Each structure stands twice: as C-alpha cells, then as structure tokens.
C-alpha cells in the first residue's frame, strides 16, 4: 500500500514547504517523515495496528501504513492515543503543576522547606518531631545521635562505618518504633545514628531521609515544587477509616449540597461558569443553580472544583499513564538512571569527556573528582576551600567548567568545586563510582524530578543554558556556610 494520493501529490508539488514555526502554530500538527526522507505536517486523528489516519494542514484526510513512516515516527504513532493527544493540546492541562498531576494519580505529597538548595521535610520519630533532609546521595538513612537519644531510640554500639565527602565516621545501629511523614507511617525499622554536628546536623536538621527509604517507598521528588510524593499503597496510612459498606464507585461523585436558605439536595457537580454551577441529578438531568444561592461551604467547594481534574480522575486511561508519560506530555525530557547500591548514577558529558554523575539532593552544589576534572580540561584553582559532610571536612578548590550536559540539558560557564571523591571508599575498592556530583543547585535550576519507581530522572531542557547563547560570565556556585568555608590557616 502506497501513501494516499493526497500526500503524494502534496509532496510532489511542494505543498508542505512551510517553516516549522508555521507548522507549530497549531500544536496538534507535527512534522512527519517517510522512510524515503519526505517530510510533511499533519495531525493524527486515529490509528489501527497497521495504519494511521491523518489530517493535513489543508484540512484533507489522509491514510497510510505505519511502516511507511520513519522509525521515530512509527514509534510516535504506536504510542499515540486520542486521549493523550487531547491532553497535549489542552490549555488547562498545561497549567497543572507536577503536584496536581501526581495527586490526581493517587500520590500523597509532603511539602518541603527549601533552605539554600537543600530540601527538608518535617516528621515524627517515636512521637518526637524531627527535621529531615532528603538526600538521594545517602546510601542509608541517618539520625543525629542526640536526636536519637531524645526520641528514645534503642542505640547499639558505635561499630558501623559510614563514608561521606569528608571521609569516614562511626555509627550505631538504632531501632525506632514509628516514623511518621504526613499520613504515611514506617514502623519497626532500623536507622544508623551518628554524630552529624560537623555537617550542621545538631543545629540545622535532625536526620537524613536517605536513598534506602526513598527507593523502598517508590518516592517521586519534585525540585521545582519542593515536594516528595509517595504512593499510599507503599506505606501504612495514619488515617484509620471506619468500617462500613464498600461505597459504589459510580455514586462516589454525588454529594449532599446545601443552599443558602438551608435546603439540601444530592447531585454531582457537572460544570460551572462565573455565576452558575451545573449539577447532574441522580436521575441524569443537568440543572443550573446560581452559585450565590449555595451555602458558604459549598460555594468554596465549587470555587475549588476544576472540570479537567474531575474528568481526569474518572478516566480509566488517565489511571494507566506512567509518571514518564505525564511529564513528557508536559515537555520534560527523561532518561533512565542506573543504581549502584542505592546511588543514582546518570551518564553525561563534561566538556568533551564522558562523565558519570551521582544525583545527590543532599549536595548543595556540584563537585568534580579532581583527577577527572584535570582529564576534562577543567580550570582548577588553589586548594583553599573546604567542603563538609559525613566524616568531617575535606579540602577543595574552585573548578571552572565550560560545559556540562545531561540529555538535552546544557549548563555552561559555571564555577563548581573539585575535591577527592575517592577518600575512604572501601566499599568501591578504593574507587568512587562517579566522576562528579550533580547537586541540588542544578536539580533546582532544571526543575528536576526524580522517580524511584520508574528509575528515571526528568529535566526541563528549556530551563537549561542554551548552547547557542552568548557565553555567560562565570559565577561562583552558590554555597552555604555549612558546606564550604575557607581553609584554616596553617
């Protein structure tokens, strides 16, 4: 089967010789390429296992076999659904935040406080309040020794070794009865207790919520919004629901409404405008009511109600979309990471040299391993800086890098730090498993999202430095006193 005559004729007479900018005026139209290299713009309207139906820009319909398209376009068509296409071109959907997207998919979220570039969440351990830093670079969760004592944890001997940028530190296996984050509860688990006062643990935070729990709970971390998301089925809920009959899902959207004169009716909110709410009654009839005739509490319900969110929550296909599909519909790019222990590793480039980055929300800024930095041609200053972490302080230097790349995200002309990342690393045979730390500064700048369940990192490329921009004057990486300080005079 050949391309339909309308497409053949259009290609032959140059009817599709329009610019990409013109083609993108209608978001539904896309640039397609055939296997023999011809290009045209069209919108997918339907598909079968073998063929695809298109709408050309002149309004004419066209059909062709999927195999007649280029391989990338074949993949696009096979993944295409009418539902996704409608979402992609829905103005209201484009305004949903990551929080709104994931909560519509059943995640619960915990708001973070952002200090510098670090993200913190409040919780309780054994009933005692804790301030915890979320740290993907920490292989295991930790609690400050004094906080563990305050929370009444059972603390073992200090016979465990842990390692950080500052080297080695000793820790003790400790047991807690309950760790609570919002409505999520983790019970009867172990955590390592150590002295974190040298990294601000005694003053700025009480514990590190590390990669072990993040991985176990299939967490999603959104840096743009400073939130961590957990699927309720992965944790025990702190909310105890009263026993009773199982509700009918078909009737779940119906509720009892009250008018301003205290009359009541049962209906589902169907639509609204600035002055009216439209209710679907239990007999299927849709009836309008002036919003100002509702009781104040129900006015608030109507004000917060959104038709798109309501429709999505009821759509079976919406519930099948992965986080990858959701965020890629919102123009995020994603790439798979690999795990080494609990470390998240991603491949990229530094200048012209391939690099392995450790994704580390606990690192305030990016850090290069010194031998790698030299191999990559990075300009390294004098070792007159200090970085702090588990195990204490380590000498460091400013490191001026021309270009870092991860996927399509490009960062140019920045000053990071360079240090020995292989100090006291016996678990890796004395070698680090990464060339550089991709820290919280870049994750925040690029609206990073980390998805443990799907093993993916998401970045917004349009937030990165563009390669064709004029070079920017290098600026020192933002640091905080607890992370970097002048080296002591000798």
Q: Into which percentage range does the β-strand content fall?
A: 35-45%
The average pLDDT is 79
The number of distinct β-strands equals: 35
Tell me the radius of gyration.
27 Å
Q: Supply the helix-strand structural class.
A: alpha+beta
Number of helices: 13
| Largest beta-sheet details | 6 strands, antiparallel
Choose one word for the global shape.
Answer: flat
Strand order of the largest sheet: 5-16-15-32-33-22
What features would you describe in this structure?
The chain has 490 residues and is α+β, with helices and mostly antiparallel strands. The protein contains 13 helices and 35 strands. It has a six-stranded antiparallel beta sheet with strand order 5-16-15-32-33-22, covered by helices on one side. Strands 7-8-14-9-13-12 form a six-stranded mixed β-barrel. It has a six-stranded mixed β-barrel with strand order 24-25-31-26-30-29. A hairpin with a 2-residue loop joins strand 24 and strand 25. The protein starts with a helix and ends with a strand. The N terminus and C terminus are likely disordered.
Brief write-up:
With 490 residues, the protein is α+β, with helices and mostly antiparallel strands. It is 18% helix and 39% strand.
Topology overview:
Blueprint: H1 5-12, H2 20-23, E1 30-33, E2 39-47, E3 51-56, E4 61-65, H3 71-79, H4 82-88, H5 91-94, H6 98-104, E5 108-111, E6 113-115, E7 118-125, E8 128-134, E9 142-144, H7 145-150, E10 154-155, E11 160-164, E12 167-181, E13 184-194, E14 207-209, H8 211-216, E15 220-222, E16 227-230, E17 236-237, E18 255-258, E19 264-272, E20 276-281, E21 286-290, H9 296-304, H10 307-314, H11 323-329, E22 333-336, E23 338-340, E24 343-350, E25 353-359, E26 367-369, H12 370-375, E27 379-380, E28 385-389, E29 392-406, E30 409-419, E31 436-438, H13 440-445, E32 449-451, E33 456-459, E34 475-476, E35 484-486
């Amino acid at each position: 089967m050949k391309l339909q005559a309308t497409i053949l004729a259009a290609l032959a007479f140059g009817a599709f010789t329009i610019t990409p900018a013109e083609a993108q005026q209608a978001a539904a139209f896309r640039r397609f390429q055939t296997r023999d290299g011809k290009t045209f713009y069209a919108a997918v309207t339907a598909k079968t296992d073998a063929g695809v139906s298109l709408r050309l820009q002149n309004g004419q319909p066209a059909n062709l076999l999927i195999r007649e398209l280029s391989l990338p376009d074949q993949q696009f068509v096979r993944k295409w659904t009418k539902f996704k296409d409608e979402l992609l071109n829905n103005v209201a959907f484009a305004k949903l935040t990551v929080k709104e997207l994931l909560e519509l998919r059943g995640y619960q979220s915990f708001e973070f406080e952002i200090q510098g570039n670090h993200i913190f969440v409040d919780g309780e351990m054994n009933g005692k309040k804790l301030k915890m830093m979320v740290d993907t670079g920490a292989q295991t969760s930790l609690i400050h020794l004094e906080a563990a004592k305050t929370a009444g944890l059972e603390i073992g001997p200090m016979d465990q070794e842990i390692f950080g940028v500052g080297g080695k530190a000793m820790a003790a296996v400790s047991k807690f009865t309950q760790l609570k984050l919002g409505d999520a509860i983790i019970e009867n688990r172990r955590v390592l207790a150590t002295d974190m006062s040298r990294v601000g643990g005694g003053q700025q935070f009480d514990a590190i919520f590390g990669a072990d729990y993040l991985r176990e709970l299939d967490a999603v971390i959104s840096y743009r919004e400073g939130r961590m998301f957990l699927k309720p089925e992965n944790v025990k809920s702190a909310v105890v629901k009263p026993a009773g009959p199982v509700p009918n899902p078909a009737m779940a959207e119906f509720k009892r409404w009250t008018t301003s004169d205290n009359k009541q009716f049962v209906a589902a909110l169907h639509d609204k405008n600035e002055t009216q709410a439209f209710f679907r009654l239990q007999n299927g009839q849709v009836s309008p009511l002036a919003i100002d005739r509702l009781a104040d509490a129900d006015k608030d319900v109507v004000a917060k109600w959104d038709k798109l969110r309501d429709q999505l929550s009821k759509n079976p296909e919406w519930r099948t979309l992965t986080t990858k599909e959701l965020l890629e519909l919102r123009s995020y790019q994603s790439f798979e990471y690999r795990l080494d222990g609990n470390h998240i590793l991603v491949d990229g480039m530094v200048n012209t040299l391939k690099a392995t980055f450790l994704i580390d929300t606990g690192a305030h800024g990016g850090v290069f391993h010194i031998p790698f930095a030299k191999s990559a041609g990075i300009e390294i200053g004098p070792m007159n800086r200090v970085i702090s972490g588990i195990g204490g302080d380590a000498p460091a230097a400013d490191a001026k890098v021309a270009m870092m790349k991860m996927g399509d995200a490009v960062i140019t002309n920045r000053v990071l730090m360079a240090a020995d990342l292989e100090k006291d690393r016996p678990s890796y045979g004395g070698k680090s498993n990464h060339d550089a730390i991709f820290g919280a500064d870049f994750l925040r700048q690029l609206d990073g999202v980390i998805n443990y369940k799907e093993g993916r990192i998401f970045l917004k490329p349009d937030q990165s430095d563009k390669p064709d921009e004029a070079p920017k004057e290098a600026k020192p990486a933002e640091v905080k006193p607890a992370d970097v300080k002048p080296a002591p005079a000798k």
